[in-house]
């Protein structure tokens, strides 16, 4: 797995990234979704954001694209309603399948955790001891202490609420959980609730 495969996954299809606000649902499985705060409802032309370094490329490649009329945009990996941050939507079903299944455990995701309680050495010790959650081994997980109320998790696995469960078992009360990176795709300065096109020179890995 490398540069060429990551490049091929995004070829010839529209892919966007979005900064999901807290309380929004990544996906809904019922017919009352119109009553809910859905991330998909944020994918509108007025919510488009263009980073300074992408202005020229975005104009020439996507100037005629009406994102509201782009069919079959699939979300690649969800965030629970109480979490925020980076989501990827793509038309590329191959890319979607690779991210969700084949390479699910091979692409590192990065999260910033803010806590209610001050993080102690005992909390950090417990975190390192709880690398089994719901009977599943947590591997290739790096936890960085930033300050008394901030941790950074770099993790490959993505099963349901894995970080929240690890923190709960370690007596850490999460105030916010924000995803800032999936592989080589960074959220950077994308404002909350905004989306942008992924550029041809950006790849997952």
Automatic annotation (TrEMBL):
UniProt keywords, alphabetically: Isomerase
Name recorded for this polypeptide: Pseudouridine synthase RsuA/RluA-like domain-containing protein
InterPro entries (alphabetical): PsdUridine_s_RsuA/RluB/E/F_cat, PsdUridine_synth_cat_dom_sf, PsdUridine_synth_RsuA/RluA, RsuA_PseudoU_synthase, TruA/RsuA/RluB/E/F_N
Organism domain of life: Eukaryota
Any matching Pfam family: PseudoU_synth_2
Isomerase among keywords: yes
Entry keyword annotation includes Isomerase: yes
Pseudouridine synthase RsuA/RluA-like domain location: 15-167
GO terms for biological process, alphabetical: pseudouridine synthesis
Example GO molecular function: RNA binding
């Amino acid at each position: 797995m490398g540069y060429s495969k990551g490049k091929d996954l995004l070829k010839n299809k529209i892919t966007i990234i979005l900064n999901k606000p807290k309380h929004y649902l990544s996906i809904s499985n019922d017919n009352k979704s119109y009553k809910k705060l859905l991330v998909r409802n944020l994918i509108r032309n007025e919510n488009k954001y263009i980073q300074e370094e992408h202005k020229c490329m975005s104009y020439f490649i996507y100037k005629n694209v009406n994102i509201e009329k782009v069919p079959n945009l699939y979300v690649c990996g969800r965030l629970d309603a109480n979490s925020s941050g980076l989501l990827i939507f793509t038309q590329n079903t191959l890319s979607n399948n690779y991210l969700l299944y084949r390479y699910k455990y091979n692409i590192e995701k990065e999260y910033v955790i803010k806590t209610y309680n001050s993080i102690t050495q005992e909390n950090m010790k417990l975190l390192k001891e709880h690398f089994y959650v719901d009977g599943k081994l947590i591997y290739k997980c790096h936890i960085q202490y930033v300050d008394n109320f901030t941790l950074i998790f770099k993790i490959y696995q993505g099963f349901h609420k894995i970080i929240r469960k690890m923190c709960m078992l370690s007596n850490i009360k999460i105030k916010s959980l924000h995803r800032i990176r999936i592989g080589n795709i960074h959220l950077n300065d994308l404002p909350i609730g905004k989306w942008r096109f992924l550029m041809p020179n950006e790849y997952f890995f």
